[in-house]
From TrEMBL:
One of its GO terms (biological process) is proteolysis. This is Lysosomal Pro-X carboxypeptidase. It holds the Pfam family Peptidase_S28. It comes from the Eukaryota. It comes from Ilex paraguariensis. The lineage of its organism: Eukaryota, Viridiplantae, Streptophyta, Embryophyta, Tracheophyta.
């Protein structure tokens, strides 16, 4: 049985988150219960469990879900393109409606849209649930990014063959971890995809390539840009919380002041809760709520004479709304994403996120690799491989490496997103480009376009500036020439 014990350090890391023609082949079966709308049709591909070995268990198969929207597709005869969304550390369901970048651009490019779920998440779990898979020491060994990329490759080659669409170019799109997968897919399978759009992909937040405090430095900047006084109040609040906690009945007083639903055992519980609120607000600081601005309005809006903790609590209320009590454990509860990502971090995705003394508005919390390793050993009995991602995919000397052998990748980052600190923020070559939106947040650029979006995103409405168009022109052709 896996002991899913979340330390404070883990909490920091978690703040990070068909067509009408028939295809009646052996490996396809339709699932009518998961259709989002008439434009989306859900299928299951009989996927290979282990793409890289020849042991008997390697030939085990499981059903992998993918969804296709053929409403706009020009067809194989026109060599119309295929836009592919690579699923990440969550079930595919919500992405079908929220990832509007594909549907917003499909009509212009006459594109077929394909969404592929990541193995072990959602309905693509070999054992049916994340709990069973994580507890199975043999099965979870097949739960990694390299196997996931091979899954995507197999599904796409299969579809192109069944659709007689060998000449249809493929462009892969992903966000966050999915953005990393999109970039890596282009590097590992260039014969399958013409290009990749990697949104909010922190591919450099490994192996000490990016400073530990990168994430929290951006969070700090977001709050400081919103309000200097708000930033200063938050910065001063941590020592004030500890000061109150150290007094007789201090934890009880903190509970009353912050109306926590449960008893506080240590001041670190309240600080971890506030840390999560601020970090999530910065990561998803998008319209119409703009949560960073909302928190600062709450903090700054209190009457003159209100003490620091009173202002901080007002920021909590501004973010969470009026409640009878506030659940400080709401970011700790296990979920499919948290459990799956915990395994992925302990096996290969070790991202050293921390902060030092006086380098952010938060109290010091340096990344402790020894503590991280002990947590992984406690939960899974494994020791992380901190250097594997940069060994297998690259990361060190990224400019030199990608310039030598890579092409047709766009790294898109909103600079308000804390994870942009681990992203590619400058052009590397004529076809390895960085697209930055000054007021953009995490993955906002691949969500549905709205009139309330920041002006930096609205400026991308002209097709010659769209990342998809850039991928075509970098390849020396345009959508009408396929």
């Amino acid at each position: 049985m896996v002991s899913f014990r979340l330390s404070y350090q883990w909490l920091l890391l978690f703040s990070f988150l068909l067509f009408s023609t028939s295809i009646s082949a052996r490996k396809l079966s339709e699932d009518p219960n998961t259709d989002v709308s008439d434009d989306f049709r859900t299928f299951f591909y009989t996927q290979t469990l282990d793409h890289f070995n020849y042991r008997p268990e390697s030939y085990t198969t499981f059903k992998q879900r993918y969804v296709i929207n053929s409403k706009y597709w020009g067809g194989a005869n026109e060599s119309a393109p295929i836009f592919v969304y690579l699923g990440s550390e969550a079930p595919l369901d919500r992405d079908l409606n929220s990832i509007g970048f594909l549907t917003d651009n499909a009509a212009h490019f006459k594109a077929l849209l394909v969404y592929i779920e990541h193995r072990f998440y959602g309905k693509s779990n070999p054992l049916g649930s994340i709990d069973k898979a994580i507890e199975n020491e043999e099965m979870r060994g097949y739960f990694n990014s390299a196997q996931a990329l091979a899954d995507y490759a197999e599904v796409l080659l299969y579809l192109k063959k069944k659709l007689h669409a060998q000449n249809s170019p493929v462009i892969v799109v992903g966000g966050s971890y999915g953005g990393m997968l999109a970039a890596w897919f282009r590097l590992k399978y260039p014969h399958i995809t013409l290009g990749a759009l990697a949104s909010s992909a922190p591919i450099l937040y490994f192996n000490d390539i990016t400073p530990q405090n990168g994430f929290y430095s951006v969070v700090t900047k977001d709050f400081k840009d919103a309000s200097e006084s708000c930033y200063e109040t938050i910065q001063k609040s941590w020592s004030e919380i500890d000061k109150v906690a150290s007094k007789p009945n201090g934890l009880s007083n903190l509970r009353q002041r912050f109306k926590t639903c449960s008893t506080l055992k240590d001041s670190s519980e309240l600080k971890a809760y506030l840390d999560s609120i601020y970090s999530q607000a910065a990561q998803y600081n998008a319209p119409p709520r703009y949560p960073v601005t909302g928190i600062c309005r709450g903090i700054d809006g209190e009457s003159e004479g209100t003490d620091i903790l009173g202002r901080i609590f007002a920021g909590v209320v501004a973010n969470k709304g009026e409640r009878s009590c506030y659940d400080i454990n709401e970011y700790k509860y296990p979920s499919e994403t948290k459990m799956g990502w915990a395994w992925q971090q302990c096996s290969e995705m070790m991202m050293p996120i921390g902060r030092g003394v006086d380098d952010t508005m938060f109290p010091p919390e340096p990344f402790n690799s020894n503590s991280f390793i002990e947590d992984c050993k406690s939960m899974f009995g494994v020791v992380p491989r901190p250097h594997w991602v940069s060994t297998y995919y690259g990361g060190q000397d990224i400019k030199l490496v990608l310039k030598r052998f890579a092409s047709n990748i766009i790294f898109s980052n909103g600079l308000k997103d804390p994870y942009s600190s681990g992203g590619v923020l400058e052009d590397i070559s004529d076809s390895i480009l960085s697209v930055q939106t000054v007021d953009g947040s995490h993955c906002l650029d691949i969500l549905k376009a709205r009139e309330i979006d920041p002006h930096c995103l609205l400026g991308l409405e002209s097709f010659e500036f769209l990342p998809i168009w850039k991928l075509y022109t970098m390849a020396g052709t345009g959508p009408d020439e396929f």
